Amino acid sequence: MTSADLPGDKPFVLLATRAQDVPADEEYALFLRFTGLPPERLRRVRLEREPLPEFDLDDVAGILVGGSPFNASDPWDEKSAVQRRVEAEMAALVDEVVARDAPFLGACYGVGTLGTHLGAPIDGVHSEPISVVDVSLTEAGRTDPLLAGLPPTFPAFVGHKEAISALPATATLLASSPTCPVQMFRVGENVYATQFHPELDLDGIVTRIHAYASYGYFAADELDLTLAAVRRSPVTATGRILRTFVERYAR
User: Fold this and answer.
1) pTM higher than 0.90 for the full model?
2) Count of domains observed in the chain
């Protein structure tokens, strides 16, 4: 199915929080590529630059959330004014999204935002260095429509300082990995979050490795090791999740 074949005309919204233009623009380009959406149907809002605009969930086909340098578990007094604003705006939006079971897919930062809404413990116990890990679908994941066509275990890009250490019973676990038990989950029927990055390809994660080299994801002398880690195994299946999300909710 091409972008011209997608049903409906409602736009999707991408909520982004990356301050650096190069990784931010590449993130948007990757979401366009993997979703198959034309730019006019994927409206990007850079929350680190502007407040979340008011919009009616009935007027959009679905909401996508990209990754973020923000960590939900950081102490409140260490968060910038921008992060505090973004978290407040995202909290209000996610409250409405969950209440209405509106289409939502948060990549990495979605775990922090949706996990906070659930009251899930979010901490550094299951953090993962920037790398490729093998993610396995749970029994629920193998039958979830958003994951149709994915193999039972697949390589995925990860890199996060925090994760959900215990998923509440109000959510459904869809995927896990040996180093991070909550790699993907669903709330209701239409609200999803992944800890891994379905929007990334190898070039995209290499860009982020260089852009965030001083953000504490790896030591100063580990750049080459980190670049080697993301080349450990080809990542080819995860982008399908974004395309399936769009095909499921475009109408």
Assistant:
1) yes
2) 1
